[in-house]
From TrEMBL, chain A:
GO terms for cellular component: plasma membrane. It is a multi-pass membrane protein. The chain crosses the membrane at residues 33-53, 92-117, 129-152, 164-184, 205-227, 264-285. PROSITE patterns: ABC_TM1. Gene3D superfamilies: MetI-like (1.10.3720.10). It comes from Streptomyces cacaoi. InterPro entries: BP-dep_ABC_trans_perm, MetI-like, MetI-like_sf. This is Sugar ABC transporter permease. Belongs to the binding-protein-dependent transport system permease family. It comes from the Bacteria.
From TrEMBL, chain B:
This is Sugar transporter. The chain crosses the membrane at residues 41-60, 98-127, 136-161, 181-210, 231-253, 292-314. It is found in: Cell membrane. Keywords: Cell membrane, Membrane, Sugar transport, Transmembrane, Transmembrane helix, Transport. Signal peptide: none annotated. Belongs to the binding-protein-dependent transport system permease family. It is a multi-pass membrane protein.
Length: 299, 324
């Protein structure tokens, strides 16, 4: 259950609510204080993001001001311009997008099949496999950079986008499978029987009935694959050694950041550009996400 | 769970099925329904291939390298690799820095987990006490923090706490106090960022759990005169135990592996490596000093520790009667 917006129409305070109306225990005199606290905390939590966007739009002089103020009277696009012009940022952005989308699509398909197998079938080693999928989530990705580096070298994938896709595919799969189980499970089994009675083949059931029903969950789950791939700078840093045209967004961001005196305006503009797609994706699917987490947590 | 409503439409009248369908009434034997014996393995095959080749094999390699002499000379093929047995581990365990890094990692992860859980649970309870609008506001803010990539979160927090141009030092009247200079203030800064970006998961999950607790239970406790803290400790927390276990373990695993934040915010482990955690330590050993075997040995140590956590997790799940 998400923050299911309780019907916006608020009954007049003090009015007895309909029988069965939930959470009367929540309505307390201290509520106003609680609401003030909630809004205040929300402001604090959102402040870093606000500051990021604000600083991206501030003219250079204001960013490097000893007396920073939480507003700007002369917003400018200079930082963004610098970001997009100087560093082949568009190209890096595209690379990031290609890698992330490839990982998302491929891992979603593979995870869907695997999640179907472990929820809709009973077979030997099933529990063992589930435990392994769970354990696989614990593997510290960064520790595997060393063998992964040699593996990519042997595959001849170093310096190519493939060397970024493959590891992330492997690392995002276990969690995707684990999360998807809940969504696959939620599709009533009766539906499956009905489909077979109606003469649908197994493949047909899988792709034409189960897949569309699980798709929302699949998209929600993809957020995590997307974020982890989109975020990655360790592999980009380690595997893309000489072919800078195959670099990704985090590397571009670090270009502004690395210097002794970081170009904060540039960093904030690049950070904004990098955060925005994830934020949009995330807010769009958060309902499903939460119910999926509930499923992964409880089921 | 709000399962997507099946939208298959009214079941069409069963078509005349040419194949005779035995209706013996006896329970179906073997795998359920019409599924063949090998079907699940067919579905699993792509996942197993990917995980086998790109996860299991690298782990095996990691273990192997940790027993070899593997430095730049071996990588470039200048010298043959040689088996060193447990020498790498002896060297590692004999290194005082390793132990201090391990200690720092454990303490840092513990602080992150406690902070995340405390903030997440407190805000989840707060969410149940406010009306829709403030709740939505807080929820959206949390979603924003949740969605922020680790690397941009790190740069933004660095900027916020920048001694020259950041607003926080000015606001707190700290002058030009540098947070990244001291060991503890640097860890504190990273801690705050980590809590900021990981409490939303806890908050949202626990909030969902609280909503599932019947209101009567809490009302009864209130009638008995229990305060907010008492209700949480004696009523909600026990009922939410399964959820709390999951978020705790997840937090332990994530916070034990924190890499990006430490790497970016303390510039690769802080001044003289004072802010190293195991993950960054392993990376620096391998890629900065080309001591691949030592880096791998550290990786194995991390794997073993996290494996221990995983086993505890599974045990707790089992005890709760969860079905995998």
């Amino acid at each position: 259950m998400t923050a299911a917006p309780t019907p916006a129409a608020v009954p007049p305070p003090g009015a007895t609510r309909r029988a069965g109306a939930p959470r009367r225990w929540l309505r307390k005199p201290g509520r106003t204080a609680a609401e003030c606290a909630a809004v205040l905390i929300a402001v604090v939590v959102a402040f870093p993001l606000y500051w990021m966007v604000l600083s991206a739009f501030k003219p250079a002089g204001e960013v490097r001001s000893e007396r920073p103020v939480p507003w700007t009277l002369s917003p400018s696009l200079d930082s963004f311009r610098r970001v997009f012009e100087q560093q082949e940022f568009g190209r890096y952005f595209l690379n990031s997008l290609v890698v992330a989308l490839a990982v998302v699509v491929v891992s979603a398909l593979i995870a869907f099949l695997a999640a179907t197998a472990v929820t809709r079938f009973r077979f030997r080693l099933r529990t063992t496999l589930l435990v392994l999928f769970l354990a696989a989530q614990m593997v510290p990705v960064e520790a595997l950079t060393i063998p992964m580096f040699f593996l990519m070298r042997d595959l001849g994938a170093l310096n190519s986008l493939l060397s970024l896709m493959l590891p992330h595919l492997a690392f995002s799969l276990p969690f995707a499978i684990w999360m998807l189980r809940g969504f696959v499970k939620a599709v009533p089994e009766a539906l499956e029987e009905q489909a077979f009675i109606d003469g649908a083949s197994r493949t047909r059931f899988l792709w034409q009935i189960l897949f569309p029903l699980v798709l929302p969950g699949l998209i929600a789950t993809s957020v995590f694959s997307f974020i982890s791939t989109w975020n990655d700078f360790l592999f980009a840093k380690s595997f893309i050694i000489s072919a800078t045209e195959n670099s990704t967004l985090p590397m571009a961001l670090l270009v502004f950041f690395d210097a002794e005196t970081p170009d904060w305006g540039g960093v904030m503009a690049a950070s904004t550009v990098m955060t925005l797609p994830v934020l949009v994706f995330f807010v769009a699917v958060h309902r499903r996400l939460v119910s999926g987490l509930g499923g992964a947590v409880k089921d | 769970m709000s399962a997507p409503a099946p939208t298959v439409g009214p079941a069409p009248p069963p078509p005349a099925d040419p194949r005779p369908r035995p209706r013996t009434g006896a329970p179906r034997t073997g795998p359920r329904r019409l599924q063949g014996r090998w079907t699940p393995w067919l579905y699993l095959a792509p996942a197993l291939v990917v995980l086998g080749g790109l996860l299991v094999y690298p782990i095996y390699q990691l273990g192997l390298i940790s027993f070899l002499e593997y430095t730049q000379a071996q990588v470039s093929g200048g010298e043959p690799t040689s088996f060193r047995g447990i020498d790498n581990y002896t060297a590692l365990f004999g290194d005082a820095q390793f132990w201090s890094v391990l200690l720092a990692t454990v303490l840092f992860a513990a602080a992150c987990v406690l902070g995340t859980l405390a903030v997440g649970c407190a805000l989840a309870v707060l969410l149940t006490r406010v009306r829709a609008v403030p709740r939505l506001v807080l929820m959206l803010a949390a979603l924003g923090a949740w969605a922020t990539p680790a690397i941009t979160g790190s740069t933004v927090w660095m900027f916020l706490f920048d001694p020259d141009f950041g607003p926080v030092d000015k606001l707190l009247g700290l002058g030009d106090f540098s947070w990244t200079y001291g060991k503890y203030s640097a860890f504190a800064l990273v801690l705050m960022e980590v809590v900021w970006c990981s409490f939303p998961l806890v908050m949202v999950t626990v909030y969902a759990g609280i909503r599932a607790v019947p209101a009567e239970v809490v009302e009864a406790a209130q009638l008995d005169g229990a305060g907010a803290w008492r209700i949480w400790r004696s009523v909600l927390a026990p009922m939410l135990r399964p959820i709390l276990i999951v978020v705790t373990i997840q937090s332990i695993i994530w916070d034990f592996k924190v890499f990006t934040q430490i790497y970016v915010m303390t510039d690769g482990g802080g001044i003289a490596g004072q802010n190293l955690v195991l993950n960054v330590y392993a990376y620096q050993k391998a890629f900065a000093s080309s001591e691949y075997s030592l880096g791998s040995a550290i990786g194995i140590v991390m794997l073993v520790i996290l494996l221990g956590v995983t086993l505890v997790y599974l045990k707790l799940l089992r005890r709760n009667g969860e079905q995998l």
